Amino acid sequence: MTLEVRDPEDGVLLGRVCTSTSQDVERATLHIHRHLQADEWPLRLRREALERAVVLLGEQAERFANIIAAESSKTITEAEREVRRCAETLRLSAAASGELAGETLGFEDSMAGAGKIGWYSRKPVGIVAAITPFNDPLNLVAHKLGPAIIGGNGVLLKPSTRTPLVGLAFVQLLLEAGVPSGRIAAIVTGPGVSEAVVTDPRVDLISFTGGPATAERIAAAAGAKKILSELGGNNATIVCADADVAAAAKAIVAGAFGVAGQNCLSVQRVYVHTSLFEQVLELVTAGTGALRTGPKLDRSTDVGPLISEAEARRVEEWVEEAKAAGATVHSGGTRRNAYYEPTVLTDVPSKCRVIRDEVFGPVVSILPFIEVRDAVFAANNTEFGLQAGVFTRSIDLALAIAEKLHVGAVVINETSDVRIDSMPFGGFKKSGVGREGVRHAVREMTEPKNTIINLGESQARWQVLGGLTERTTP
């Protein structure tokens, strides 16, 4: 069977990909398992393969950007940016080889450690199943494959069914760069494939990016396996009374509507002090209205389509629900096929889904506050806890707010839409389990292995020798 891959912008057929079966999963995991057992692939060669992949990706950057723009929601400029980030992720993965060194064990300070010396080093967990989404179809694959490879693991990639082409192209590039075929495999969805991946006893770790409901099904099916999950967010930005209004408004527009809002770090809720509310609303509305929604390959386009017309209809439904509950639309609020115009809302009741759940679309709600503690409470009042932004000129206030926000990262004088590929990335509550970010993912995908030497008899001999040679006072 084959899977048709179509451009979400116009439905044009881009290609067909052979789907997989549960038997394909069995063969792939068995092949990787045998390779891990039988063949050595030294750390030096793993690092060199990733460094070579950086070079190859640079040479093929235009090709990869065009694939991303064609099969996903990204404009060509967003796609080019993702290719550059992927190269950075691979470079960081190669440089993370030092994370595997380990350290000596401090046995001297333990009664049970007497007569022993030891150390630990980090060893691969085995086979990593990487299950990736459509919104960053190249760099999020690299964030799983790069650390897994440098850590010495084998990898089974299952890319999104909406954007499989770039994931498959990336696996081919890694093979060309020197990754052995026995260390990596890719499968595309088919009957029973997802269940086969997560339940295969040879899969040692599952790295998943997607929604909480899917993550819960994976955890229930996988059993006693290590699972890393990045599950999205409902991110807030707080604009305090002393904030730089122009800077805050510009950042809010940029952070709310990139990739048509289909970004786990997207700005969804903005809490603005009442003294600045009208100014911020006016600037955000003007900035939003100036955005151009249009064809992805047109470099003047700011916002492309959503990944499907069904997703655009869902966003439309959520906004209509908010309007019916009393919300006011200041910009956008209209749909055309898979496009949804960037939308700014106010007066949104907290019960509405655009406030309560992750919109994953180009919608931002702006809400006033009087006391900072109320803004912090509202920002935390969600099932998610990925990232947040705070705008203020006071470092004391910024740090006080950051301390109270229950999220994985607080960005001062920026919005939640900041990810540096070297930082630990993840959140609290339903935003996920574990951390990505290259060095941190390497640690997650390896385990410490102790080597302990019992000096025992040799130490006793030394003590005897010391006694024989000990000087005495005449």
Structural overview:
A 7-stranded mixed beta sheet has the order 12-15-16-11-10-18-19, sandwiched between helices. A 6-stranded mixed beta sheet has the order 7-6-5-8-9-21, with helices on both faces. The chain has a 3-stranded antiparallel beta sheet with strand order 3-4-22. The relative contact order is 0.14. Helix content is 41%, strand content 22%. It has helices spanning 22-38, 43-59, 61-71, 76-95, 139-150, 164-177, 193-199, 212-222, 245-257, 277-289, 309-324, 353-356, 372-380, 395-404, 438-444, 456-469; strands spanning 2-6, 13-18, 103-104, 116-124, 127-131, 154-158, 184-186, 203-209, 226-230, 235-239, 267-273, 328-331, 335-336, 339-340, 343-346, 363-369, 384-385, 387-391, 409-412, 428-429, 432-433, 446-454. The protein contains 16 helices and 22 strands. By secondary structure, the chain is α/β, with parallel strands linked by helices. Helix 1 packs parallel to helix 7 (193-199), helix 2 (43-59) packs across helix 6 and helix 4 packs parallel to helix 5 (139-150).
